[in-house]
Amino acid sequence: MAPKPIPKRLGEKLRAIREHKGWTLDQMAEAVGRTGTSRRARVYEWEMGVRQPDLLALLAYARLVGVSTDVLVDDDLELVLKYTGA
Q1: Distance (Å, whole) CA 79 – CA 76
Q2: Which of 16, 58, 10 has its CA nearest to residue 34?
Q3: Which of 40, 53, 58, 60 has its CA 20 to 30 A from that of 74?
Q4: Could you read off the pLDDT of 6-25 as tens digits, one per residue?
């Protein structure tokens, strides 16, 4: 059985979450548990579709905005981010 391709919109959705939070790449990396000198680059690679996040990072993204991981990895599902505050 052939592996499924990387979702085309995953990076776009991950970037939307980071921007929704108003966070830098470093802040997002910290929020999803990335450490080390290349953590900023790793988040950037995820957003650009160069690499896929591991399951724990994907779960962290989903929990930050209260959505299922299905929403992130399924190109047919829309990511709806709810704004809170003023």
Answers
A1: 10
A2: 58
A3: 40
A4: 689 999 999 999 999 999 99
